[in-house]
Amino acid sequence: MSSHEHTHIRSDGTVFTHCHDTLTGHTHSHNHTKTKAVLNRLSRAIGHLESVKRMVADGRDCTEVLMQLAAVQSALNGTAKVILKDHIEHCLTDALEQNNAAALEELNTAIERFMR
Question: Is the pTM of this model over 0.70?
Answer without folding.
Answer: no
